[in-house]
Amino acid sequence: MPSADLVLHNANVITMNPARPTAQLVAFRGDRILVVGDKERLGEVRGDKTRVVDCGGKTVVPGFNDAHCHFFGAIRKRRTIDLSQIR
Fold this sequence. Notes:
The chain is an alpha/beta fold. It has a domain at 6-62: Roll (Urease, subunit C, domain 1), CATH 2.30.40.10. The protein contains two helices and five strands; from the N terminus they run βββαββα. The protein has helices spanning 42-45, 71-78, and strands spanning 6-14, 22-29, 32-37, 51-54, 59-60. Strands 1, 2, 3, 4 and 5 form a five-stranded mixed beta sheet that branches. A hairpin with a 7-residue loop joins strand 1 (6-14) and strand 2. The radius of gyration is 22 Å and the shape is elongated.
């Protein structure tokens, strides 16, 4: 197995996989996830140049997309007519 560039270990990794909802380690190579697994896998993915971050039990989650809206602005937009294009 190739060595990782970055390893986050000693973490509470939320995997979003119902078959395995949590893990303790995530290893990255470039912009790809190499391994998600138990803390014992650190030796498999660690190389001479691997940056290893001890998360101290903190939670690691998948990336979030900000999909919020401003409630009153959304209502106002739906209750008004945009006449800006009319000449």
